[in-house]
Design a protein that fits this description.
5-stranded parallel sheet; Rossmann fold; 9 helices; about 325 residues; 2 domains; globular; 5 strands; alpha/beta
Length: about 325
């Protein structure tokens, strides 16, 4: 008892301070990671959202996005322009955290409706437990929900022109605190699976033009770091393949394979203690507020978004 008691007291002291004891969870120290946006190298690989360790979208790619965005307009159920009664549909795909984040963002957008295009509508198709591996399943619940939402009376898949994809590449839980898979192999596979899912979106929604990508937030309290932090590489590499003109990532013309891609806001933050989570996994109200604040600021500043989301001046 004399040996165990000091250890218990030390662990309780660390947890009370909002940190994690050396072995909890998984013995990983998240302070050893820097946010992906710093551009610091990781195992010889460049970080930063875009090439060169930068976080600003390259000008040529931005201009291409602006050109696509300028063509977005309300469409009727047959996909023909209808300024009076058509819709600009944006869909959300992802798992439970995605559902909660974009439900909060959707409420905020409703409060700003006077500033938005009157024919814009956000459809949240995220479903709990449906991470990227589940999205790879063509019979998955996200696909069913989105199908139901876009095929009800007055709606059509042909009206979908924007996608928000917020996803992650691990299981729904990690009760055994299993270590992250090998790097970079696992992130290269994630990049490939992201391309597969986005290719299916492009095929399912012929008028889909733009996709905003966000990876999941801090997952230390489920033992899934540094895996979730690393997932930003999969998004970065996929976007870079499109920037380099990879035919498999083509976004325009008859050879289109994917929508045009760009990063949304980056939300991973290793300063988040347990108070930012409802249960160690799902965002608490203050985390939701941060997500909404960051995404709203991004939407307001992004010239690609301004062309379709907001009312014309």
């Amino acid at each position: 008892m004399r040996t165990i008691l000091p250890l218990l007291l030390a662990a309780l002291t660390v947890l009370a301070a909002g940190g994690a004891a050396a072995g909890e969870p998984g013995g990983f120290d998240p302070s050893t990671l820097k946010p992906f946006t710093t551009g610091a190298a990781y195992e010889g690989r460049e970080t930063g959202l875009y090439p060169g360790g930068k976080n600003e979208i390259p000008e040529a790619h931005r201009k291409a996005g602006e050109a696509l965005a300028a063509a977005i307009q309300p469409l009727d159920t047959t996909g023909k322009p209808d300024a009076a009664n058509g819709r600009i549909l944006a869909i959300v795909a992802g798992h439970s955290n995605c559902k909660q984040y974009f439900t909060a963002l959707g409420r905020h957008l409703e409060s700003k409706q006077a500033e938005l295009h009157p024919r814009f509508e956000l459809l949240n198709g995220a479903v709990s437990g449906n991470q990227l591996p589940q999205l790879m399943n063509e019979q998955g619940r996200v696909w069913t929900l989105l199908s139901n939402q876009t095929k009800r009376p007055g709606y059509s898949p042909l009206q979908v022109q924007v996608l928000f994809l917020h996803t992650t590449y691990h299981g729904a839980n990690n009760k055994g605190n299993q270590p992250a898979g090998p790097f970079p192999d696992q992130m290269q596979k994630m990049q490939s699976d992201l391309a597969t899912v986005l290719g299916r979106c492009a095929a399912t929604y012929p008028n889909l033009k733009l996709c905003y990508l966000t990876c999941d937030g801090f997952r230390h309290f489920t033992g899934q770091e540094p895996h979730v932090w690393r997932e930003a590489f999969a998004f970065k590499w996929l976007i870079e393949s499109q920037l380099k003109g990879d035919p498999a990532a083509a976004y325009a013309g008859a050879e289109r394979k994917l929508p045009w891609l760009q990063w949304g806001p980056y939300i991973w933050d290793n300063t988040w203690d347990r108070s930012y989570f409802a249960d160690g996994v799902h965002p608490a109200p203050k985390a939701l507020a941060i997500f909404v604040e960051k995404y709203w600021a991004f939407l307001n500043a992004d010239p690609v978004t301004k062309a379709w989301l907001f009312k014309k001046p």
